[in-house]
Amino acid sequence: MEFSFDWICQYVDPEEEASAVAERLTAAGLAVEGQEVRQGDVIFDVDVTTNRPDCMNHLGLAREVSALTGKTLTSPDTDILEVEQRTADVAEVELQDATGCPRYVARVIRGVEVGPSPEWLVKRLASIGQRSINNIVDISNFVLWELGQPIHAFDLQKLSRAKILVRRAREGERLVTLDGEDRELDPEILVIADAEKAVALAGIMGGLDSEVTESSADILIESAHFDPTRIRLGAGLLGIHTDANHRFERGADPEVCRLAADRVTSLVAEIAGGQVLAGAVDVRNSSLDWQLAGQLDLRRASTFGGVELDGEQAVGWLEGIGFEMEAESAGVWQVGVPSWRYYDMRPDPTRPAGEPQPAVFEADLFEEVLRLHGFDSISSTLPDVGGPDAGSSAGHWRREGVRRHLAICGYTEAVTFSFYDAEAESRFPGIGRQGTPLLLANPISELYTVMQRSLLPGLLEAAEFNLRRGAGSVRLFEIGHLFPGQDCEELEAVALVAGGGMGTAWDRHRDYDLFDLKGAVESLAARFGLELRFRPADLAGFVAGTGAEILAGDSDSAVGYLGQLAHEDAAVPLFAAELRTDLCQPGAVQAVELPSRFPAVEVDLTLTHAESTAWADLADEIEAAAVQDLVEFGLEVRYVGEGVPAGAVNTTLYFLYNAADRSLTQEEVNERHEAVRHRLADRFGWKGST
Amino acid sequence: MSADELTRHQEAFAAEAAEVRDRADWEALRVRWIGRKQGIVRSLLAQLKDVPKEEKRDFGQGVNRLKGTVEARLAELDEELSRTERSLAQEAAAVDVTLPGRHPHLGTLHPVNLVTQHIVDIFIGLGYSVAEGPEVEDDFHNFEALNFPQDHPARDTQDTLFLEDGRLLRTHTSPVQIRTMLKRQPPIRVICPGRVYRHDNDLRHSPMFHQVEGLAVGEGISLGDLKGTLEAFIHRLFSPDTGVRLRPSYFPFTEPSAEVDITCPFCRGDGCQTCSGTGWMEILGAGMVDPRVLENCNIDPSIYSGFAFGLGIDRVAMIRYGIPNIRMLFDNDERLLHQVRI
Ligand SMILES: [Zn+2]
Predict the structure, then answer these.
(1) CA dist., res. B143 & res. A552, Å (int)
(2) How far apart are CA A277 and CA A81, in angstroms?
(3) Does the pLDDT of residue B342 top 90, yes or no?
(4) Helices A394-408/A514-527 angle, 10° precision
(5) Tens digit of pLDDT for each residue in B45-100?
(6) What is the full DSSP assignment across B112-175?
């Protein structure tokens, strides 16, 4: 928001350069983000935060400057010479919605001469980028930027029966606004009406018909207060943003209405002539009030701020920005809050504006003192709350464990968006899907409309991105939340997408396959003491015959899946897995099994069996045999070819025998091993094709 | 032994020694001259008993000199042969040790998560615990409890992504603070990292990004504690000589609120393009927890106070690794990610 330094100096002489004032304002929370010299003036670009509508005008900023520099603030002049006729004799105001409009001040000036503005006024407005229209409109605009109060001027002759009625719009009512738009209104919208029809959008924009023009002679000045929520609702429905509704939405000063009306009136009389009718029609909702009070305890403020505050200084600052200070006891004051800080300081913003409020929070008063004091000289300490908090959480511990394990296994961590398009939604099985997915109501693009129920679409896209850029292989993983359905809790999962060969012949190049992927998943599970089982399954998005569901523990419901992606365009075969991570719990600490001090004996075994026999069945059979002193067994070679009957496969396994307390003799090993050999041969040995 | 005889033997030995080519020659020479059984030296010594008494002394000394000469020369030859043998063996096994080593294929962690973990580690060191929560939130936890009243302009700054069921994607990780305070009474010190979402998509904004927020609530927690905590944090995250500056600002959930600047990590405060010549870089938002927020979480603001802060992790990752565009973080280009080491 732009402000003229020269204009600010109209109300306070800081006896300082503009840049010094800018620095003070920034240090007090009114960040001057730019300073530009324009025609002998310095224009400040100030970031006025939404809680400070009182500083969205020059007097408001001048008030801050006055408090910060200790120089006197001079309020603008409102001297008016009135005629005998009273405003109340010619105009009537009625508040039908006295919640939406708790206060309305109207003044009337007759016989004005609408025309160009004097040079000083044109210049003032131009300095902050405002265009001159005519003297009446310019004066209204000037007062908005001077006092922060939006003003509207009506052509009194165009108001049916000179009546102002503040009410809600009727169903289907229409109004052509100042910008020429013919708008259909809604009963949620507050309007200013005359005896017959809506003539303006209250607090937002005037109507075209009742506008002040060159031919207007008698004008009615509106200076009213509108409820922020009501204005925001209306402006939102209509999609209008004006300087007026910007201020009303943030909360204008409820008590400035009369002052602003008088200020406009005095300027009109001075610039456009005419006769000012006596007094104003000032209607208010008497059940509402805008007073707030609280208590400031300087000792508590010092503790809160971590700084030693000076009582006299604090009182000076607060009085400087309009607070009323009444000493109660040593270092304690009763504090009255100025009306222009009402919306910022009310303790309970959920109560309708103007309804009784409890005492203001002392932190609100501390904030004022501390920001005017500045944050620079506050000392640096650490909280003294006795002992540490709980440290890492189980979820965080788990995730970091999964993450580090997969990185060690050679996978690169990716981060992709948590939403995808409707097409991606049904591409892969996902985990825990229930009912319909969560859909975004205002997606950023058609590509991001559905909350993910699988990490694979995003991760596959990342894999394709790398392959398109010439990578011969990818090894990617991601950990993220899945959103399984309407009434489901979010689920954390990990996904892997990998494929292609790493390195050159020198590097012993080897193409990635399904069992590399499976090994990564198994090793991850093993790290958390989790045993997985794999059940063949026909999975959406996977090459038929390569897919498997992943089962954990004794449960029969899948916790994940893996397989080779059905992905014809890819430069290399891609393999993918997805697995929920919540199973990866930190298990109970287990004592290690001490390895035997005696040498182990390794024996191989080759079994010819039907191709259809699953490795898992062989392994189960060996486990079931519970062979004494067998500490480990595994797959060595699978062979199909010369010497192996069609339909059969040669599987060579290794067996490692080791006793804890002695060296096993060859006879003992042979005896144990023969038993396994027979057991396997009996059950699985090749008996010719059937 | 006469001097002539001695010279003759020595000349003969020298001539034979000059002919030694390999270990077998050497061994033959050794046996011929100083072999225990038939070595020339031994047989000369055996002759000693037949030498006339007056010549015995000279003869003995002569033989000993000859023996000394032979042994010394044999040792020399032995050393020469060993050297040759070693170099031959080396030649046979020689490799080019400058050939490239075979690297295990290393994975990497995403820069955003590396930075997250660094931040979490710093705060665990300061006595905090990690708290997490859902990414789909309701209005209460994301806005209402944080003192964003319904229909308040402060909500405009949040650019929220809404779900069709009326819920929303959290716009910050502050709802986790609310959930923590609703579950526990003070003292509380938590750090909340996670994904957050905004309706924003351009070169500088991504609809999904990462935030970490911290919260400390207890008796007598002050603005000074916030300042000291942020300094300790920033000095560990960047460097101990990083300057930290707090400027009053506004957030609905804190008061007073502050924007926190650090001395620009690129120019160290001298002013450069990245910091628009100011020497400072805005990196954090912070403040004392608004009493309305404490009340919304059933914590009595007349007894307890607290501070909260939040920062964008992606931004820190971009600064740290020199990544110019936030969208590049989510391209997941392995050529880029592989340069980031754990
Ligand atoms: Zn810089």
Answers:
(1) 40
(2) 9
(3) no
(4) 140
(5) 888 888 888 888 888 888 888 889 899 999 999 999 999 888 888 888 888 889 99
(6) HHHHHHHHHHHHHHTT-EE----SEE-HHHHTGGGT--TT-GGGGGG-PPBBTTS-EE-SSSHH
CB contact under 8 A, B136 and A508: no
Whether A381 and B187 lie within 8 Å, measured CB to CB: no
Q: Write out the E strands in A169-320.
A: 174-176, 182-184, 190-193, 198-201, 205-206, 219-225, 275-278, 281-284, 292-297
Q: How far apart are the first and last CA of chain A?
A: 88
pLDDT in tens, A109-168: 999 999 999 999 999 999 999 999 999 999 999 999 999 999 999 999 999 999 999 999
Chain A CB contacts of B252 under 8 Å are: 51
pTM here? 0.86
Cα→Cα distances A640→A512, A607, A648, Å: 21, 12, 7
Closest CA to B174 of B311, B37, B71: B311
Confidence band of B340 (pLDDT split at 50, 70, 90): confident
pLDDT tens figures, A416-457: 999 999 999 999 999 989 999 999 999 999 999 999 999 999
A493-531 pLDDT, tens digit each? 999 999 999 888 888 888 999 999 999 999 999 988 888
The token pair at B201 is 């998509």
**Inter-residue contact A494 to A578 (CB < 8 Å):** yes
* Cα dihedral A430, A436, A440, A446 sign: positive
DSSP letters, B28-81, are HHHHHHH-TTT-HHHHHHHHGGGS-HHHHHHHHHHHHHHHHHHHHHHHHHHHHH
**How close is the Cα of B274 to the center of ligand 1, in Å?**
5
- The answer to whether B252 and A31 are in contact (CB under 8 A) is no
| A413 in contact with B, Cβ within 8 Å | yes
* Residue A140 tokens, joined: 């209204």
Please tell me the distance from the alpha carbon of residue A404 to that of residue A411, in angstroms, as a whole number: 10
Enter the DSSP assignment of A177: B
CA distance A53 to A343: 9
Cβ contact, residue pair A389, B149, below 8 Å:
no
Q: Give me A58's structure tokens.
A: 């020059």
Residues of chain B found within 8 Å of residue A469, distances taken between Cβ atoms: 333, 335
Q: In whole angstroms, what is the distance from residue A615 CA to residue A635 CA? A: 9
Q: How many CB atoms lie within 10 A of CB A242?
A: 18
Domain ranges of chain B: 3-93, 111-339
Mean pLDDT across chain A: 94
**Which tens digit of pLDDT belongs to each residue from B253-312?**
999 999 999 999 889 889 998 888 889 999 999 999 999 999 999 999 999 999 999 999
Q: How far is CA A102 from CA A249, A256, A257, B227, B324, in A?
A: 15, 13, 11, 43, 52
- Mutation to test the A interface, candidates B117, B202, B250, most A Cβ within 10 Å: B250
Tokens of A141: 């605009």
User: Each residue of B127-174: pLDDT tens digit?
Assistant: 999 999 999 999 999 999 999 877 777 777 668 999 999 999 999 999
pLDDT band at A588 (very low <50, low <70, confident <90, very high): low
- Mean local confidence (pLDDT), A307-332: 95
> Which two tokens mark B37?
């059984």
Name the token pair of A326.
Answer: 């009444």
Give the C-alpha separation, A201 to A178, whole Å: 10
Contact A437, B138 (CB under 8 A): no
* Fold designation for B111-339: BirA Bifunctional Protein; domain 2 (3.30.930)
Query: Would the CB atoms of A466 and B108 count as touching at under 8 Å?
Result: no
Asked if residue A308 lies in contact with residue A302, where contact means CB atoms within 8 angstroms, the answer is: yes
